[in-house]
Amino acid sequence: MDIISQKDIDLILGKMLSSGGQFSEIYFEESDSAGFSFIDKKVETSSSGTVSGCGLRLIKGEQTYFASQSNPSVVSLISLAEIFMGQQQTQKQAEPHTTHGVHCVQVQGEPIKIEQSYIAEITEELLPYLKAIENLDKTLRAKSSQIKQLSFRVSSGRKSFFVANSNKTTALNKRSSAIFTVAIVMSDGKITQTAHEVIAEESLKKIKYENIEKVSLVAYQRVSNLLNNAISSPAGEMPIVISSSAGGTMIHEAIGHSLEADAVQKGISPVYLGKIGKKVASEKITVMDNATLEGFRGSYKYDDEGTPGQKTILVENGILKNYLYDLFTSKKDNVKSTGNGRRESYHHKPIPRMSNTYIAPGRDNPEDIVKSIEKGIFVTKMGGGQVNTANGDFIFEVEEGYELNNGKIGRMLRNASLIGNGPEILNSIDMVGNDIGWQPGTCGKDGQGVPVLDGQPTLRIPKITIGGK
User: Fold this and answer.
1) Cα–Cα nearest to 21, from 328, 261, 305
2) Residue 117 in contact with residue 32, Cβ under 8 Å?
């Protein structure tokens, strides 16, 4: 990965195509990362390093052939490309290689810097966070003997990549991200409750110590209230309000994955197959996927195939407008890629993935939405969940929720869950707030994790099944 010329790129792409393929691609990447986990008063794990390598991809008919190497030379890449000439499907991989320095790609005679390793800098940046977390751990434990586990995680990473393909696309891009998470487990010996909070930023420097303390105290107060003050959630069908503070976890799972084009084409998500131009949600619902939002966790200038990041309207006023495409799936449907071809690393082939996915704000006042409920539940924090993309059935835990009686927020509830069907729920939403809240995360699919951000305004669902005691 030291230096490669346009001539060598053309040679490698051409060798792959000589087997009769329709598309070939070369993808260089260098990434560095550092992080640690602090669990039960000690550092449980820590890591830092730089990895670099290259992935080659050939599309031939309905088949995708992929191979990767760590820290490859031009000679080794040419040899790897010759494997494709034999039309053999391969997944040749090497162990990630630690390296340092500046790596360049030469395109049209001009050297282009990929990225310099910043591991030493990142590692030094982590040390103050470790000291702050050690002090915070002591502060929180002094508040209650009911704390059974405190865990913190801080990580930071940067990725630079260059991609070129037989469609004459070339792109050079870099991204960075940092994330802090805290999880607290408390128990009185009979009941155990948990709470968590997340901060995600473009860089570690933007995660302030005071914000770490603030969100950790929020998580502590929530789990303490769940354990000591909350009542068991009622069960059965009832109306609910999901606050914008709950973030867009439900929209991500309930419809986002179902609109990724590979899921539709493979029949994994038949519920939205052939529904372009048809009503799939309430006319109050507009769903966006937008990789162009500046500074957001799921944003990027180019996706991992070199397609510019875009704003894609998936559902507009209840009407299905589009799916999320990469180059492979867009060719099958004879449309353009939406710039959603993403991969975890050079060891993976790109697949359609969400970026920043959200329900657009509506016109209703969030306070009026709450006041409209005579008897129901107010959800302010979502937990984990599961969705069946084949039919849209889902179940989500409620990490923080409250009674709603005559439009007023009442007692905190514990052990509530939301059970329903995504398409049915989206069609039933009858009030959409003029606010919006976000929830950062790392989305897993096909063994790959990529950074995403999910959002939604305050929503009223007239009827949903609540699981409780």
Assistant:
1) 328
2) yes
User: pTM value?
Assistant: 0.90
CA distance 276 to 281: 12
Q: What is the sign of the dihedral through the CA atoms of 101, 106, 109 and 113?
A: negative
Domain boundary among 228, 252, 283: 228
Q: Are both 249 and 199 inside the same structural domain?
A: no
pLDDT of residue 111: 42
How far is residue 410's CA from residue 401's CA, in Å, rounded to a whole number?
10
* CA-based nearest residue to 360, from 275, 277, 461, 458: 458
pLDDT of 90? 44
Q: Within this chain, do residues 325 and 218 fall inside the same structural domain, yes or no?
A: no
Distance CA(438)–CA(454), nearest Å, equals 6
Query: Is the residue at 352 inside a domain?
Result: yes
Using DSSP's 3-state secondary structure scheme, residue 48 falls into strand
Strands 236-242 and 459-467: antiparallel
Query: Are residues 260 and 223 part of one domain?
Result: no
Low-confidence ranges of the chain (pLDDT < 50): 1-2, 88-118
Number of domains the chain is built from: 2
Q: Which domain holds residue 410?
A: 232-467
What are the backbone dihedrals phi and psi of residue 324, each rounded to the nearest 5 degrees, phi first?
-95, 120
> Do 412 and 283 have their domain in common?
yes
Q: What is the DSSP letter of 194?
A: E
Q: Model confidence over 115-169: pLDDT tens digits?
A: 444 455 557 889 999 999 999 999 999 999 999 999 999 999 999 999 999 999 9
Residue 1 in any domain: the answer is no
Q: Where are the beta strands (DSSP E) in 268-340?
A: 287-290, 311-316, 319-320
Closest CA to 349 of 14, 93, 127: 93
Distance CA 460, CA 183 (A): 29
pLDDT at 99: 29
Going 11 to 17 to 19 to 23, the CA torsion angle's sign is: positive
